C-alpha cells in the first residue's frame, strides 16, 4: 500500500511539473519570477513522503499535494476567473494545513491562528464561489 501511495504521489508531482513547465514556457507571463526546473523539482521533493515523517508532516504533505492538484487548472484567459480558480484551492490548502496544526499542536497561539485562518479562508472561498457563479461566462 505504501508503494502504491508513493507511485501515486510521484505521478501527481510529475504531472504538476509538466503543467508548471508548460505554463512557464507559454510566453504570456509578464516578467514575473518563475521557478526553474531545479527549483520546481526541489519543491516537489519536499512534498514526497519519507520514512522518517511524523504524522503531522505526513498530513502537511498530503495537504500540500492536494492544494497543488487543485491549483493545476488551465487558465481561461479571464484574469478575474483565473484568480479565483487558483485561489480557491490555495485557500482550501490553508484550511487543511490549519486543521493539521490544530490536530498536532499544543501551542495556544498556533491554535488561535489556525482557527482564525480557517474562519477567514472559508468565508473567502464562499465569496469567490459566489462571484464565479454570478460572473463566470
Automatic annotation (TrEMBL):
Pfam families for this protein: DUF305
Domain of life of the organism encoding this protein: Bacteria
Protein name as it appears in the record: DUF305 domain-containing protein
Keyword Secreted on entry: no
Annotated organism of origin: Tianweitania sediminis
Annotated ranges, domain DUF305: 80-134
Entry keywords, A to Z: Signal
Record InterPro entries: DUF305_CopM-like, Ferritin-like
Signal peptide (from-to): 1-22
Amino acid at each position: 500500500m505504501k508503494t502504491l501511495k508513493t507511485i501515486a504521489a510521484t505521478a501527481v508531482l510529475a504531472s504538476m511539473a509538466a503543467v508548471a513547465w508548460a505554463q512557464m514556457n507559454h510566453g504570456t507571463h509578464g516578467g514575473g519570477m518563475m521557478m526553474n526546473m531545479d527549483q520546481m523539482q526541489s519543491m516537489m521533493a519536499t512534498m514526497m513522503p519519507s520514512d522518517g515523517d511524523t504524522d503531522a508532516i505526513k498530513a502537511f504533505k498530503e495537504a500540500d499535494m492536494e492544494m497543488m492538484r487543485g491549483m493545476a487548472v488551465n487558465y481561461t484567459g479571464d484574469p478575474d476567473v483565473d484568480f479565483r480558480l487558483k485561489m480557491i484551492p490555495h485557500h482550501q490548502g490553508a484550511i487543511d494545513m490549519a486543521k493539521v496544526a490544530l490536530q498536532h499542536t499544543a501551542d495556544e497561539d498556533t491554535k488561535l491562528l489556525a482557527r482564525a485562518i480557517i474562519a477567514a479562508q472559508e468565508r473567502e472561498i464562499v465569496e469567490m464561489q459566489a462571484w464565479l457563479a454570478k460572473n463566470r461566462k
